[in-house]
Amino acid sequence: MTETQTLLRTPLHALHVELGAKLVPFAGYEMPVQYPAGVLKEHLHTREKAGLFDVSHMGQAFLHGADPARSLEKLAPSDFIGLKEGRQRYGLLLNDEGGIKDDFMASRLIGEAALYLVVNAAMKESDFAYITERLAGELTVEPRPDRALLALQGPAAGAVLEKLSPGIDALTFMQVIRAKVAGIDAIVGRTGYTGEDGFEISIAGSDTEKLARALLADPDVLPIGLGARDSLRVEAGLCLYGHDIDETTNPAEAGLIWAIGKRRKLEKGFPAADKIMAGVLNGTARKRVGIRPDGRAPARDGTEIADKSGRVIGTITSGGFGPSLNAPIAMGYVETAFAADDTEIDLIVRGKALPARIAPMPFVPNRYKRGTAQ
Amino acid sequence: MSETRYTDQHEWISLEGDEATVGITRFATEQLGDVVFVDVPEVGKSFAKGAEAAVVESVKAASEVYAPVAGTVTAGNYALGDDPSLVNADPEGAGWFFKLRLANKAEFEALMTKEQYQEFATGH
Lengths: 374, 124
Hints:
- The structure holds 2 protein chains of 2 kinds.
- Chain A has 9 helices and 19 strands.
- The longest helix of chain A is centred in the middle third of the chain and has 11 residues.
- By secondary structure, chain A is an alpha+beta fold.
- Chain A folds into 2 domains: 276 residues, Gyrase A, domain 2; 75 residues, Elongation Factor Tu (Ef-tu), domain 3 (Beta Barrel).
- By secondary structure, chain B is of the alpha+beta class.
- Chain B has a single domain, classed as CATH 2.40.50.100.
- Helix content of chain B is 23%, strand content 37%.
- Chain B contains 5 helices and 9 strands; from the N terminus they run βββαβββββααβαα.
- The chains are: A alpha+beta, B alpha+beta.
- At the A-B interface, helix 2 and helix 7 of A face strand 4 and strand 6 of B.
């Protein structure tokens, strides 16, 4: 290879290097896949205490318009009109066939008319262009590449952040607020991608290193790379865009019916609503499921799934090793007849049929700090 | 006295008489990260030089381990099945993968010496 691809860097690049991170290309960025502690320790530390993740590569934007929530509902089936101030909600950006163009998080900040969006790194240009084109005249997208994003995840996250931002630990799962953290202006949401309690903290790029150092100064906090981010989210049963969901999967077969608002199920008015609702009501030909291999061998993304007669019935979309379970885990799509828990299947790994079974997700129970009232 | 040679696939092979022990180098384990699964070959299997002989998987990915020389497997380190972390802890000792009876000793002689391998591994 003579061609040199220029990779983007997040504001924490120098700190990653200083911390001894192994950097790899990811979604056009040079990102830390692991630090010297290694993926296993980083994963287990996040479940036990708290991990700090640089997710500044993700796309951030504000949506402006007369009624951004109502406009966005034309492209996404969540109930954004009903999203209360100070709350955030998971959303799916759909194409005209009901396929998933991206998944994202939308926040309605207190006293602000705009919706604040966080989308996947690899999809941000495409998402913003799609929203701009499809909602022209009613919505404008204000991308914020000047902002960075840090995630603090794990059971100690609340206590750690409380020291830097008194009162912040009162937030419950999916609440979001503008706050000062270590004296820095931030947007703080009690959310994450690990199945643990935790926060995602949006700050100006220029403030990122200061905030990261303040968080890492806490003895409970270790820096965590993308390797553990992936194993944590698979254990939590969460989808990775481009693997478990994409333009060929729709929300019903992906098991993301919960991301369709109750009101929206009746009113519809989102792309391919009739097709998606037919899947919700009558079932789909295939379903996303959790899978536990019987043995120790991990089965990776792309592995064929067969029934006991050897007929191919599906494909693994995310798979590897679950450090908290000390066992291999996977998720993928199978024909609906094989989607029930404990169904025996085979995974075709290096030409060998390895026995496995369908298993409920999440593999590790979620430990979100839920509020009493939603 | 055993003699150890190295391959450009980051395997080590240590020869004693006509039996050689094969594993992956510390450099390789550092590149792989935490090993979570190892598939070692069964005794009696024969491999051509460069054939896929074992599999090592980290949390992130699977990698093949190739036979550094042609030969027949005389032992496998089945302890790695229960404790794959031995590969990270002691890659050039307790983390060995398998033993081979060599078909052709000249193939061994042609592999890199420790000094040559160190230059190779740090040079890329």
